[in-house]
Design goal:
Distance between the termini: 36 Å
Strand content: 5-15%
Number of domains: 2
Shape: globular
Number of strands: 9
Number of helices: 13
Largest sheet: 6 strands, parallel
Helix content: 40-55%
Radius of gyration: 21 Å
Low-confidence stretches: none
């Protein structure tokens, strides 16, 4: 099986690395070649042009937007552009794109006889490297069965089959909405306990050891304790996802009052930080920084507790992971 991959940014690189670690040969094309020549991707074949991936059995894409995916497929140098004689048999797109965009790409690939799997993923690069990563897949069942070993090598927590068409995109949107609601509630309850006098690290250690603790609450805990909001995903991206999900909810007549309230808190956080002298930098921080805006509203002055706290996302095989 010949495997090609386009897009080795923050998410794509560790995903390819998992395929390589599992023993699969992978050929890579990336717009910035240097990103494909890192130590993490040692063993991959880096090609000079996308056309060198034309004879792949399976081509993966992990790109920023639906427009990027469409351009890679059908643009002037696209893998499936008009007149191309040789093209990959199956395309697996792991990007987070809209359902309409995905459906349009699928319709064009169907006419070419190319199998198309939507396989959006849930997690961040640390989740990928730690093996705490999953994906959801929709499209032709036979293409899914053929690709399943590859998908599980990338996402050992599961590669769930949702059905035909764009149902995987819907799953990703729904999971993201829950993620953002949990983030908001995590900020609220942590702030409540902290204002009452409980050290944040003590409260979060208790929460994460309880039945309500999760991979997400564990890896966000150090940020809330030590106020390190290095970006994993910016609040503007959260707002975009929530608007998309709420629009779908209106179309399907599904009430989502809790999600709507969480969305407005994200908007308040963006608005407040836009007014600061370094507004762009402030808004560009991780979406968990909504905790700071909540603290302002509660009249709480936050300070880092400077407590070492594991995010439970140590890479597989590390000493920390083995003892966790």
């Amino acid at each position: 099986m010949k495997i090609g991959w386009i897009g080795v940014g923050r998410m794509g690189a560790p995903m390819v690395a998992r395929l390589l670690k599992a023993g699969y040969p992978v050929s890579i094309w990336n717009r910035t070649r240097a990103k494909a020549e890192t130590p993490e991707l040692a063993g991959a074949t880096v090609v000079d042009s996308r056309d060198e991936l034309a004879d792949c059995d399976i081509l993966f894409t992990m790109l920023s937007t639906g427009k990027d995916v469409a351009d890679v497929c059908f643009g002037p140098d696209g893998m499936f552009r008009d007149g191309v004689k040789i093209m990959p048999k199956t395309l697996i797109d792991c990007s987070t794109i809209g359902m309409d965009e995905s459906a349009e790409i699928r319709a064009r690939l169907d006419r070419l006889g190319v199998g198309f799997l939507a396989a959006p993923v849930s997690g961040n690069p640390k989740c990928v490297r730690a093996g705490k990563f999953c994906c959801v897949v929709s499209g032709p069942k036979d293409a899914y069965e053929a690709a399943k070993p590859l998908l599980l090598a990338i996402a050992p927590r599961g590669a769930s089959y949702a059905g035909e068409g764009e149902l995987a995109r819907m799953c990703k949107i729904a999971v993201n909405l829950m993620l953002y609601v949990v983030n908001q509630n995590l900020a609220e309850v942590t702030l409540l306990a902290n204002k009452a006098g409980v050290p944040r690290h003590a409260f979060l250690e208790f929460l994460n050891g309880s039945v309500i603790g999760s991979t997400f609450t564990k890896y966000k805990a150090p940020a809330l304790v030590n106020l390190d909001f290095a970006t994993t995903f910016p609040p503007t991206g959260v707002r975009k996802d929530m608007d998309l999900g709420l629009a779908l909810a209106r179309q399907l007549e599904v009430p989502m009052p809790v999600t709507a309230a969480a969305r407005e808190m994200v908007q308040a956080h963006i608005g407040v930080n836009r007014l600061k002298p370094d507004g762009d930098a402030q808004v560009g921080r991780d979406f968990s920084a909504v905790f700071e805006t909540m603290a302002q509203l509660a009249g709480v002055t936050l300070e880092s507790e400077n407590v070492a706290l594991s995010d439970s996302l140590e890479p597989e095989g590390s000493k920390a992971a083995a003892t966790a």
